[in-house]
């Protein structure tokens, strides 16, 4: 008798389902808020007790955390905003967190997080955290911790169909394999074949999330950059757009400036904004990822 | 090879940390292997110890030692993970990128290789955010892993980028592990090498190995296995290993001698090894062969 084997789907042990939010930490939240608004985000809610704001655009949630209560050993937010956390949507946050700890992740105390809900987190690169969120269907984490701003559309539409595409992470020399272990073993990411790049920044190593909705890009210091201060951290957010030129045009209208010198100039594949606030850039990448579900379904 | 590839280990020297660092530097070494006690036992506290290490200008070869880690279960495992976290934190604070872990001697540890591999993977993962590599060493009186090839087997099977092997000449010689076993090892996965000779021809029982290891080691060139140690270094060099060598010499006499005297003996040992290795790989020989 011939037995037909079933080929399993690529492993997604956490039931990962995209990004719930990305958090920035800064001591100058107004300045970052202004930049985010130019990028098409709108402030939609304020934290009940901390200096934390929720910005939203289409399916994307960005949190701006100016609360000074930081974790032991971690630096106080500076004036240059830094990406301080990525929150992944998962099937069961507690399971994802316990599994990560069992595999060697560092537990992060929840008290210092932006949220008062107990959102489980682990130590990511540099001072950043990785959160696991499972409340994103009928009930959201923001319902508990945030108060909606009055008179504001809680679900502002995305400009030019923009959505989260990925996060770029700078790493030190010879660290690619270490971080590949981190993202593949703890979170179920897989490495894309060498030479497979999106956008206009073909560098480093690309990792795809197990839900195929998100990428991490690891970048070691480029050759000849010995004099550049290079540290391990989350460097910038990549935003996907089905039509990059349309997105660039829409953002330019709002006053966003793009790098326009070779080899980095806006094209059909992607674009890179100038550096704002001493270190914040956004990268646009052509993308048709079916991630354009509302950020807050069921409202 | 040159002296910059060699370092001393603080366990060889008596006295306060600052005096050890000074003696090592004054002897011409540029690196130092630290033990957790140097930091935890500093009379002015951990921060002062870290400052002293940073001020010394010496590069930290590695930090030791996490013991009896792998193969435990239940609350013992939980306890050891806490210890590992604390040691990784200290290691990072010192600017060390290598944590030495020696194979377990615990009677509570399982001999299940899969469980040990799982634990080593977990430790390697804990070390990733800190940019620390885990160097796993076969202790010659280890309960389940007592020889280098066994440690290498676990390292290979665990297959983590920041997990590698620490090679220790004492343990290899004590168990009479053939040096040919090094040919099976990927030199890129050897994270560092500890060198020590000893005075006895044979150390047969695990207890005898432990006793000798903790009290009667000497520098390469001073014991009866010096030609084997030179052979080991030469083989590692030929394999392409270009990492650090550290003298891990536990010796009851050396901790009651002036630091400069002991450091001078270490320096003499470097001359012995460099001489042996260089002489055996003189380019002249290759040239002569080529013209034959």
Set down the secondary structure blueprint.
The complex is a heterodimer of chains A (299) and B (292).
Chain A: E1 19-25, H1 29-38, E2 42-47, E3 52-57, E4 60-65, E5 82-89, H2 93-102, E6 121-123, E7 129-133, H3 142-145, E8 146-148, E9 163-170, H4 176-187, E10 190-191, E11 205-208, E12 215-219, E13 233-241, H5 244-253, E14 270-272, E15 282-286
Parallel strand pairs in A: 1-4, 5-7, 9-12, 13-15
Antiparallel strand pairs in A: 1-5, 2-3, 2-8, 3-4, 6-7, 9-13, 10-11, 11-12, 14-15
Chain B: E1 6-9, H1 17-26, E2 31-35, H2 36-40, H3 46-56, E3 59-66, H4 74-93, E4 98-102, H5 113-127, E5 133-137, H6 148-158, E6 163-168, H7 169-174, E7 190-195, E8 197-198, H8 206-215, E9 217-218, H9 226-239, E10 245-247, H10 259-280, H11 283-291
Helix pairs in contact in B: 1-3, 5-6, 9-10
Keywords:
heterodimer; A: 299 residues; alpha+beta; eight-stranded mixed β-sheet; seven-stranded mixed β-sheet; 5 helices; globular; disordered C terminus; B: 292 residues; alpha/beta; eight-stranded parallel beta barrel; two-stranded antiparallel sheet; 11 helices; 10 strands
Write up this protein.
The complex is a heterodimer of chains A (299) and B (292). With 299 residues, chain A is an alpha+beta fold. Helices cover 15% and strands 27% of the residues of chain A. In chain A, strand 2 (42-47) and strand 3 (52-57) form a beta hairpin. Chain B has 292 residues and is of the alpha/beta class. Chain B has an eight-stranded parallel beta barrel, surrounded by five helices. Chain B has a two-stranded antiparallel sheet with strand order 8-9. Chain A binds chain B through residues 102-106, 123-125, 172, 175, 177-182, 185-186, 232, and chain B through 85, 121-126, 128-129, 131, 160-162.
């Amino acid at each position: 008798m011939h037995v037909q084997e079933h080929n399993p789907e690529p492993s997604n042990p956490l039931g990962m389902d995209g990004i719930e939010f990305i958090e920035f930490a800064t001591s100058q939240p107004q300045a970052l808020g202004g930049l985010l608004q130019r990028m098409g985000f709108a402030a939609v809610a304020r934290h009940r007790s901390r200096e934390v704001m929720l910005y939203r655009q289409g399916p994307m949630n960005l949190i701006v955390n100016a609360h000074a209560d930081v974790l032991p050993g971690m630096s106080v937010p500076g004036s240059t905003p830094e990406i301080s956390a990525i929150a992944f949507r998962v099937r069961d946050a507690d399971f994802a967190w316990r599994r990560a700890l069992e595999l060697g992740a560092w537990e992060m105390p929840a008290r210092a997080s932006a949220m008062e809900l107990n959102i489980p987190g682990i130590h990511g690169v540099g001072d950043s955290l990785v959160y696991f969120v499972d409340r994103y269907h009928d009930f959201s984490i923001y319902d508990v911790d945030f108060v909606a701003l009055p008179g504001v559309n809680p679900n502002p539409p995305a400009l030019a169909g923009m959505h989260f595409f990925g996060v770029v992470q700078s790493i030190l020399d010879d660290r690619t394999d270490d971080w590949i272990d981190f993202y593949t073993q703890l979170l179920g990411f897989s490495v894309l074949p060498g030479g497979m790049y999106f956008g206009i920044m073909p560098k480093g190593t690309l990792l795809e999330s197990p839900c195929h909705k998100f990428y991490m890009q690891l970048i070691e210091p480029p050759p000849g950059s010995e004099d550049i201060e290079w540290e391990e951290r989350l460097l910038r957010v990549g935003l996907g757009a089905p039509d990059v030129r349309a997105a660039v045009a829409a953002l330019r209208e709002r006053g966003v400036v793009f790098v326009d010198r070779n080899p980095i100039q806006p094209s059909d594949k992607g674009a890179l904004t100038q550096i704002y606030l001493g270190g914040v850039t956004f990268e646009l990448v052509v993308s048709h990822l079916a991630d354009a579900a509302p950020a807050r379904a069921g409202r | 090879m040159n002296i910059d590839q060699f370092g001393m280990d603080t366990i060889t020297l008596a006295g306060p940390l600052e005096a050890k660092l000074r003696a090592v530097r004054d002897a011409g070494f540029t690196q130092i292997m630290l033990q957790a006690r140097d930091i935890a036992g500093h009379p002015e506290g951990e921060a002062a110890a870290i400052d002293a290490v940073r001020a010394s200008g010496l590069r930290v070869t590695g930090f030791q030692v996490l013991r009896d880690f792998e193969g435990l279960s239940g609350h013992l495992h939980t306890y050891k993970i806490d210890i590992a976290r604390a040691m990784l934190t200290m290691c990072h604070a010192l600017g060390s990128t290598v944590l030495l872990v020696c194979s377990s001697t615990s009677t509570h540890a399982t001999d299940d290789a899969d469980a040990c591999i799982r634990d080593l993977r977990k430790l390697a993962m804990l070390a990733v955010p800190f940019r620390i590599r885990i160097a796993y060493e076969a202790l010659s009186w280890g309960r389940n892993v007592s020889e280098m090839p066994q440690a290498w087997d676990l390292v290979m099977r665990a297959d983590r980028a920041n997990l590698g092997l620490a090679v220790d000449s004492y343990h290899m010689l004590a168990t009479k592990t053939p040096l040919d076993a090094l040919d099976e090892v990927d030199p890129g996965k050897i994270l560092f090498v500890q060198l020590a000779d000893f005075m006895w021809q044979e150390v047969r029982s695990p207890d005898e190995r432990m006793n000798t290891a903790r009290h009667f080691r000497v520098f390469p060139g001073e014991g009866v296995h010096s030609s084997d140690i030179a052979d080991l270094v030469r083989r590692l060099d030929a394999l392409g290993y270009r990492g650090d060598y550290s003298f891990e010499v536990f010796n009851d006499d050396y901790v009651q001698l002036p630091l400069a005297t002991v450091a001078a003996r270490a320096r003499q040992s470097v001359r012995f090894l460099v001489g042996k290795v260089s002489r055996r790989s003189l380019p002249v020989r290759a040239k002569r062969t080529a013209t034959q």
